[in-house]
């Protein structure tokens, strides 16, 4: 059942190519516009590059979250998933994994280009990619909770942003601090370990929370 739901999410995403392309276009546009707003000075850009990349990654991840459960709720798919003999939390984990594969993985692959556009030192590129690899699953996991809670709400996108952005602040702090430490040559293993711990905790608990939120939305 998990593999079926995972494949279905990928198939639906391929059919709606705008859901895949729009977050990446938004990311590129924002990163490209920042040098025009703050000036092209390489030192300034390098200093603020970690924060810019992570803030835009956070915001771009919110673009497709509203549809994560809304369409399934409207066509009755969520009700069928709730009646499945497979634990609902495992089904929700497969939806979270599919969302990360479609949004987080392309962002990680695009990160060297973003780093180059913002003049981030090459010594920090690996740390940037590691921080995204460790942190983007948390964006999908926590984002899925908010998407499930607001699936049946009108104008759920605005409500979703209000719920999720405060929850992402710890991730933003530790992720940008890890990249900034790499820029100045300081050790950052502890910060990356905290990111990994936050992601493991979220992936452990969020499927249960999403399953409970889905049942509330269905009922």
* Approximate strand percentage: under 5%
Domain module count: 1
Helix segment tally: 10
End-to-end Cα distance, whole Å, is 22 Å
Mean pLDDT: 82
Alpha-beta content class: mainly alpha
Pfam family, one: CcmB
Organism: Idiomarina xiamenensis 10-D-4
Membrane topology: Multi-pass membrane protein
Subcellular location: Cell inner membrane
Question: In words, what does this structure look like?
Answer:
The chain crosses the membrane at residues 20-38, 44-65, 97-118, 124-151, 158-179, 191-214. One of its GO terms (cellular component) is plasma membrane. It is found in: Cell inner membrane. This is Heme exporter protein B. The protein is mainly alpha-helical and 219 residues long. It has one domain. The chain has 10 helices and no strands. The protein has helices at residues 2-15, 17-38, 42-63, 67-74, 77-82, 88-117, 125-149, 156-167, 169-183, 189-218. Helix 7 (125-149) packs antiparallel against helix 9 (169-183) and helix 9 (169-183) runs antiparallel to helix 10. The longest helix is centred in the middle third of the chain and has 30 residues, at 88-117. The mean pLDDT is 82.
């Amino acid at each position: 059942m998990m593999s079926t739901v995972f494949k279905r999410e990928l198939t639906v995403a391929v059919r709606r190519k705008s859901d895949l392309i729009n977050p990446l276009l938004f990311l590129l546009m924002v990163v490209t516009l920042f040098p025009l707003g703050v000036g092209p000075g390489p030192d300034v850009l390098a200093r603020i590059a970690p924060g810019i990349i992570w803030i835009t990654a956070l915001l771009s991840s919110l673009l497709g979250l509203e549809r994560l459960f809304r369409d399934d709720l409207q066509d009755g798919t969520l009700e069928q998933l709730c009646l499945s003999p497979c634990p609902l939390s495992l089904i929700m984990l497969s939806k979270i994994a599919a969302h990360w594969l479609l949004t987080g993985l392309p962002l990680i692959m695009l990160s060297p280009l973003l780093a180059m556009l913002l003049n981030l030192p090459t010594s920090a590129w690996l740390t940037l990619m590691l921080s995204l690899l460790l942190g983007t699953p948390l964006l999908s996991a926590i984002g899925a909770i908010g998407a499930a809670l607001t699936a049946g709400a009108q104008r759920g996108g605005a409500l979703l942003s209000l719920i999720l952005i405060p929850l992402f602040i710890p991730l933003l702090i530790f992720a940008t601090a890890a990249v900034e430490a790499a820029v100045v040559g300081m050790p950052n293993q502890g910060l990356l370990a905290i990111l990994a711990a936050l992601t493991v905790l979220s992936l452990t608990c969020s499927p249960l929370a999403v399953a409970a939120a889905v049942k509330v939305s269905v009922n």
